[in-house]
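Q: I'm building a small set of examples for a reading group on sequence design. Run inverse folding on the following structure and report the sequence directly after it, with nothing in between.
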């Protein structure tokens, strides 16, 4: 049962955060996200926040109570490391180069 809770939480994390992360990779997805926010306003924020609470809670329960805690922790850390290296690090490098004085 704990494994199922973790898997549900992990899938919600990937889908919920993946959609948000895509805005950094695709202008089309950024526009689609903005349209959703504009259309649903506060309801979008509530939905996204509720999904955050669900995935964080389910993933935490899975990591804390499962005998597979190290594997589950590795999955979560692996996902976020891939996101950091593939999405956020290149953005940070671009920003740094933008503010770097000419050499």
């Amino acid at each position: 049962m704990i494994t199922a809770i973790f898997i549900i939480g992990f899938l919600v994390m990937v889908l919920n955060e993946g959609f948000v992360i895509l805005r950094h990779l695709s202008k089309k997805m950024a526009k689609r996200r903005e349209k959703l926010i504009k259309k649903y306003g506060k309801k979008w924020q509530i939905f996204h926040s509720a999904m955050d609470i669900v995935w964080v809670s389910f993933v935490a329960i899975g990591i804390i109570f499962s005998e597979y805690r190290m594997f589950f922790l590795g999955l979560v850390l692996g996902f976020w490391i891939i996101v950091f290296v593939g999405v956020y690090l290149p953005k940070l490098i671009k920003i740094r180069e933008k503010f770097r004085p000419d050499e």
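Residues 35 and 41 are 9 Å apart (CA to CA).
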